[in-house]
Structure formats: structure tokens, C-alpha cells
From TrEMBL:
Domain ABC transporter residues, every copy: 6-234
Keyword annotations from UniProtKB, A to Z: ATP-binding, Nucleotide-binding, Transport
Keyword Nucleotide-binding: yes
InterPro entries: AAA+_ATPase, ABC_transporter-like_ATP-bd, ABC_transporter-like_CS, P-loop_NTPase
Sequence similarity: Belongs to the ABC transporter superfamily.
Protein name: ABC transporter domain-containing protein
Biological source species: Paenibacillus donghaensis
Length: 305
């Protein structure tokens, strides 16, 4: 079992009488990418702010790198990189100058680190361009570069792929995967883009209205539901008849959008295709759908069918 990096025990945060977080228990281990999922206002940022020392819990405890005393936790925070909301960027300065400011703030003397993090987030070629001319995606990447400056062993990233285009999202995924796999960095990441989190994270924690409702590993997610064959066709009745009567298949369903689904292990895909084509049915699409984080989440919070 790898080292515990962060552990929360009964963490609560109240704003007035409103609970932003209630009785949170969770553990994040070295080298894992932990996807933190919840609706707007669920409490994700609040937990991250607690880790960053920006907010104090109302009750409960947490440890960081095994440290739980206030002074020791503060020391331990030096080993963490944070991207919580957008960091303050000086818009009249370029990327290098902004990073230089944070180096001074963190007491990082090694100037070559600036070039390394700029390269890591693909901003090396921005030259003297001022941050005021940056796109949202470039600002996000500069924010990530700031979080990487201190060579963190734990990264806390609140919606780091917000505003990135598909290439930017893929680049960030590659950076994070590399950090976790090659350097054993633990990563806590929140995002509303669940399809991307599913590609990235090895474990998922679900929070709903301030309560931690479930945790599941990537492999448990894959085992949570059978993958399905999905058929889109203009000859729905004929296809249903073939599947039920000729192929004697059970467990066939029709979705609201008219797609026919059946368990992928009930028939060989090639056999299915050849029978359907033999009957000259009009096929608009046939694909395999794997268990999906979005469906899992919707079901979990009672929003799915
Ligand atoms: N400073 C504050 N004062 C009062 N209430 C707050 C404060 N900060 C957060 N809250 C409340 O705490 C709850 C949790 O907010 P939080 O920002 O942690 O949610 P979130 O899961 O990060 O949401 P989002 O996905 O929108 O970022 C919300 O109801 C929010 O309104």
C-alpha cells in the first residue's frame, strides 16, 4: 500500500448555519490521480481551500504528509502545488515575469525551473507576450505552471481544464499522467468534464450537498456495469424482431432516443452484423458503449434513468 498523502477525518465546514462540508472522510495516496466530483456548490473547492490553508475547518481533522499539527501542516504545504480558482496573474507582465514573481514569493532560487515549467505546460514560445493578451486556456496553463514551480509531491487542482480546448485538455492530461506515473505525484483534481476525468483518474470521490457519498476505483467503475452494444436504426421493429426471435437474445432495451441496446457478451459483434446485413436492415450506427462515469454519477445522485 503506498504512502498516504492526505487524509480527512470527519471534516466539516459551516458558513453561518449552512454546511459547506459535512463529515468528510477520504484518503489520497502517493501516485494516484483522485477525481473529485460533485455539482456546483457541492463543496469541492471548500475542501481544497482547507488543504491550502485558505479556510479553516469548523470541526474534524486532516493530515498532510502524515502531519496534523497546525505548524507542521503549514510546513507540509510547501510540498503541495495548488491551482484553486485562478491564481493572481499580473496582466502587464509576460509568463516568465509572472513565474519569476512566484519564485521570489516561494523562495525558489533556481531560475531554470521557470523554463522547465513553461515547457511542461507548452507555453515556452509565448516570449514577451503580456498575460493580458492570453486566452483563458493559456491563463489556465500558466496557473498550472505556477502550481508546478515548487516540484510538488501533491497537486490540488480545482477545475484545471476549464476553458481549455481539446488539444489543451489532452496536453494537461499527459502532463498529469506523467507526473503521477513517473514521479509518484498524488493529484486531487475536480472537474465537471466527467468524460475527461474518467480518462485521467484512478479513483473517484463523489460529493453531494457537502456530504461524501461514495468512492470508487477506475476498475470498480468498469465492473459496475456491463458494456453494451448500441444499435441505431431506421428499421427498429425489424431489428427487434430479428434479435428476439431469430437470435433468441434477451435483455434488449430501447432507449428514449430509440437506440436499441443489448449486453455486449450476449452475441459476437461480427455475427450480429452479418445477420442484420443479411436482412438488409437500415443501420445508422452500431457501437460498443463502456461503463461511463457520467451515467454512474447521474445514477448515484438520482438523476439518471
Ligand atoms: N465564503 C463563503 N461564504 C459563504 N458560503 C460559502 C463561501 N464559500 C463557499 N460557500 C458555500 O459553500 C458551498 C460549497 O461551495 P464550494 O465552492 O466548495 O462548491 P464547489 O463544489 O466547489 O462548486 P463549483 O463546482 O461551483 O466550484 C456552497 O453552498 C457555497 O455557496
Amino acid at each position: 500500500m503506498s504512502t498516504t498523502i492526505f487524509e480527512a477525518n470527519g471534516l466539516c465546514k459551516k458558513y453561518g448555519s449552512a454546511h459547506a462540508l459535512q463529515d468528510i472522510h477520504m484518503t489520497i495516496r502517493q501516485g494516484e490521480i483522485y477525481g473529485f466530483i460533485g455539482e456546483n456548490g457541492a463543496g469541492k473547492t471548500t475542501l481544497m481551500r482547507i488543504i491550502g490553508g485558505l479556510v479553516h475547518p469548523s470541526s474534524g481533522q486532516f493530515s498532510l504528509f502524515g502531519q496534523s499539527g497546525a505548524r507542521q501542516v503549514n510546513q507540509a504545504r510547501r510540498r503541495v502545488g495548488f491551482l484553486i480558482e485562478m491564481p493572481s496573474l499580473y496582466s502587464h507582465l509576460d509568463a516568465e515575469e509572472n513565474l519569476g514573481f512566484y519564485c521570489r514569493m516561494y523562495g525558489i532560487k533556481q531560475r531554470s525551473r521557470i523554463g522547465e515549467v513553461l515547457q511542461a505546460v507548452s507555453l515556452s514560445d509565448t516570449g514577451r507576450k503580456r498575460v493580458s493578451g492570453y486566452s483563458l486556456g493559456m491563463r489556465q496553463r500558466l496557473g498550472l505552471a505556477i502550481a508546478l514551480l515548487n516540484r510538488p509531491e501533491f497537486l490540488v487542482l480545482d477545475e484545471p481544464i476549464n476553458g481549455l480546448d481539446p488539444t489543451g485538455i489532452m496536453e494537461v492530461r499527459q502532463i498529469l499522467e506523467q507526473l503521477a506515473q513517473e514521479q509518484g505525484v498524488a493529484i486531487l483534481i475536480s472537474s465537471h468534464i466527467l468524460s475527461e476525468l474518467q480518462l485521467l483518474a484512478s479513483r473517484f470521490g463523489f460529493i453531494h450537498r457537502g456530504r461524501f457519498i461514495q468512492e470508487i476505483s477506475a476498475s470498480e467503475l468498469m465492473a459496475s456495469a456491463k458494456s453494451k452494444i448500441c444499435i441505431q436504426t431506421g428499421s427498429k421493429d425489424t431489428v427487434l424482431q430479428i434479435l428476439r426471435e431469430q437470435l433468441s437474445l434477451a435483455d434488449i432495451a430501447v432507449t428514449e432516443s430509440g437506440e436499441i441496446t443489448l449486453p455486449s457478451d450476449s452475441i459476437d459483434m461480427e455475427q450480429l452484423m452479418s445477420v442484420l446485413l443479411e436482412h438488409r436492415v437500415r443501420l445508422e450506427g452500431v457501437h460498443l458503449s463502456a461503463p461511463n462515469l457520467e451515467h454512474y454519477y447521474m445514477k448515484l445522485i438520482g438523476g439518471g434513468k
